[in-house]
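Usage

Read records sequentially. Each one opens with the input sequence:
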Amino acid sequence: MRSEENLWMNGQEVFAFTLKRVPEVVRALIAKSETTMDCINWFIFHQANAFMNGKLCNALKIPEGRAPLFVEEVGNTVSNTIPITLQAAADRMRDGDLAMLVGFGVGYSWGACMLEWSNVFRKYQ
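and closes with the structure output:
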C-alpha cells in the first residue's frame, strides 16, 4: 500500500529519467574527451536490468558486444555492478582499450568517467 510511511519507486519515471540523462552524460564525456563513440572500446553501464541497458545501447547506437551485460548472473547490486561487470569483461579487454564507466540510479544521480585499460589491472583480480 502506498503512503507517506512506505517507500516506493515510480519505475516509469526512473526509466524515463535514465533514458534522458544517461545518453546526455555519455555524449558530454565524449565531447569533453575530444573523442568519438567509435574510439570507445567498452561501455560499462550500471547493471540496472537487461531491458534498461538494451534501451540505452539502442539509444546510443552502441554495437552489440561493446557494452557487457552481467546483471543476469548477479542481479542489480547497485553501484557494485560497475566493478563487477568490469572484472567480468577483463579477459576481453586489451592494453590501451578505452572504457567508459557510467553510473546512474539512486536519488536521480548519474555520472561517467573514462579510463584506459591496462593489463596491470588483471593482476589484482
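Summary fields computed downstream for this record:
- The mean pLDDT is 88.
- The longest strand covers residues 98-105.
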